[in-house]
Amino acid sequence: SSVQTIGEEQIQNPYTELLVLKGHQDIVRFLVQIDDYRFASAGDDGIIFIWNAQTGEKLYELHGHTHKITAIAPFSSSDVTEENTDLIITASADRTVIVWDCASGRQVQKVSCFHSTVKCLTVLQRLNVWLSGGSDLCIWNRKLDLLCKTSHLTDAGISALVELPKNCVAAAVGKELIIFRLIASSNGSEGWNILEVKRLVDHQDNISSLVSVNDLTFVTGSHIGELIVWDALDWTKQASECNFWDSSVHPDVQPEIKLSQSPHETSVQHLTSDEECVFAAVGKGIYVYNLQMKRVIACQRTAHDSSVLHIEKLPNRQLISCSEDGSVRIWELREKQQLPAEPVPTGFFNMWGFGRANKQANQAAKKMHENTPVYFLELVGDLIGHSSAVQMFLYFGELGLATCSADHLIILWKDGERESSLRSLTLFRKLAQNGDLQLRL
């Protein structure tokens, strides 16, 4: 296999302790962060659990759905008449949506008027509403009052939603990207209207991933490996990348001999971004696309043995990826040491005047090489704990990393040195308290 390996000495991998959280009875597909120390998990058993990310304690077990969970989103209420309440919204294949109170674990509201399964949920915190996407696009308030809905879009329905500026959203419907504008009622009531303003048909296959970069840019990826960068204000196409598997475009990558690539191998499974780059999980590989240069600046073509399902950029220069092969890997984005350009060959080609042209081309290449930093992804950590596909993960900073898998488990990966020092500190405090107690006696 051409997959990179790393030995037992993983100096840059802090996650040397793990907590295994049990409770789910089927594939765990979703993790959503509630606050700095709590998160919720959900999957094919239809149950939602709320956990403490610091201790691994199970806080609540939420029952209300009868089929698998298809979408989950956090929703912090900011109603001026009430205290701030941490809520989560869950959608299920049983065609219901439920709002839960994370502080009490109780069911706040339930709606079961859907004609099809809700596949995605998006909260527009600024407008204090949320959207559900299925065969229709619906607008709801936090009390689950339906404010507005579109007419039936397609049997395939909306697979992903992303918020855009000026009260707009982009919805992935098969190969199409539909831009909707949300218009508030002008008479002061809570009514809303949904206006379809544009359909973008640049993708050649179904859109599989959507991500907002900032107020000016968003990015989409498709099942056949297309990545398109869009202007978030006028929805024009800014750039695209369709050559993830072309070794002539990425010469630093070791070529693989293959007769053909199946769509499964080139599909963009997940996208994430920072202000500078988009990080794409494409087939078994991960790619770093620079938005300013409009090109891939680093890639690991075979990052895992199987498809990469989720990727995130950490606050430092590290990336984390997880895969169907059950592994979770940490990567460091590093700049390559630039090598001097090779001298122009002399001899036979010079006789025919090729030398001069070659020299000019070489100088141009050298200039471009000097001005363009080249990066690579180095494997610095390999987390082996799950026995089946790792669906996604959450990063909790110093509290560690939470992963969920098809093996029905959630694992909390902890910084071993930090946990050891915390245990020592707790022990010293207990010893000091016991000493004070003995002195008093």
The termini sit apart by: 68 Å
Kindly report the spatial arrangement of strands forming the biggest sheet.
Answer: 1-32-31-30
Could you estimate the helical fraction of the residues in percent?
Answer: 10-25%
Beta-strand segment tally: 32
Largest sheet: 4 strands, antiparallel
Kindly estimate the percentage of residues that lie in beta strands according to DSSP.
35-45%
Q: What structural category do the secondary elements indicate?
A: mainly beta
What is the global morphology?
Answer: globular
Fold and architecture overview:
By secondary structure, this protein is mostly beta strands. It contains 4 helices and 32 strands. The chain has a 4-stranded antiparallel sheet with strand order 1-32-31-30. A 4-stranded antiparallel sheet has the order 2-3-4-5, with no helix packed on it. A 4-stranded antiparallel sheet has the order 6-7-8-9, with no helix packed on it. The longest helix has 25 residues, at about 415-440. Keywords: Autophagy, Cytoplasm, Repeat, WD repeat. It comes from Zosterops hypoxanthus. This is WD repeat-containing protein 41. It holds the Pfam family Beta-prop_WDR41.
Task: Show the helix and strand layout.
Layout (H helix, E strand, L loop, with lengths): L14 E7 L6 E6 L4 E6 L4 E5 L5 E5 L6 E9 L7 E8 L4 E5 L5 E5 L8 E5 L4 E5 L3 E5 L4 E4 L10 E5 L3 E6 L2 E9 L7 E9 L6 E6 L4 E6 L4 E5 L5 E5 L21 H4 L1 E6 L3 E6 L2 E6 L4 E6 L7 E6 L4 E6 L3 E9 L12 H4 L2 H18 L3 E10 L5 E6 L5 E5 L4 E6 H25 L1
Antiparallel strand pairs: 1-32, 2-3, 3-4, 4-5, 6-7, 7-8, 8-9, 10-11, 11-12, 12-13, 14-15, 15-16, 16-17, 18-19, 19-20, 20-21, 22-23, 23-24, 24-25, 26-27, 27-28, 28-29, 30-31, 31-32
